[in-house]
Amino acid sequence: MRQVAVTSAAAVTLAMAPPFQLGSWTGAIGSADGRARVLRQLPPVATLASQLTQEFVDAYVNYIFQISVHEWYTAFSSGFLKVCGGKVLELFQPSELRAMMVGSSNYNWEELEETAIYKGDYSATHPTVKLFWETFHEFPLEKKKKFLLFLTGSDRIPIYGMASLQIVIQSTASGEEYLPVAHTCYNLLDLPKYSSKEILSARLTQALDNYEGFSLA
What we know:
- The protein has a four-stranded mixed β-sheet with strand order 6-7-9-8, with helices on one face.
- The two termini are 32 Å apart.
- It contains seven helices and nine strands.
- A hairpin with a 5-residue loop joins strand 3 (26-30) and strand 4 (36-39).
- By secondary structure, the protein is an alpha/beta fold.
- The chain has three domains: 4-68, no CATH class; 71-102, no CATH class; 109-209, Hect, E3 ligase catalytic fold (2-Layer Sandwich), CATH 3.30.2410.10.
- Its EC number is 2.3.2.26.
């Protein structure tokens, strides 16, 4: 894309075919030979010649994605590189760096169950634990992600996968009228001994729907 500099931009409406209807716009477009050509101020609704359309689009895109956010991006980049800078960044692809910083979205829910740890009266064969996993696996994807956020503070998983997450489910002395409680620092779920799948599903859903906390994503 050619380097362009836009001094101001207004809302743009492009028709499906030439001529194009454009809003009021003023800009300076740098051409390939290094000469800058300034487009005049257009009236609120004007027809731009088709040969200028690509130049206008280039200028507008550059303004939105570069010029208009330059100040904020520069500040973010400076802060990020102070914490995470160095030659090691050159080893990562963008997708790998994102996974390292905010986690992965490669969910394996069966692995989450297989690597879970149980405390108190609970074990993998306890009736309440079985009801919990039956209920959980029936949840749609967004609700499962909401559970991860509720339990761990993030709806993403570590870069090494679900196995490295290793949630803990422990029994409590609370009655069925109480909701599950999450301890995000330890990936720990306090789960009362619900006697039916319906009660467990209702209490867990209520906890997820009324949860307020923090997210790392």
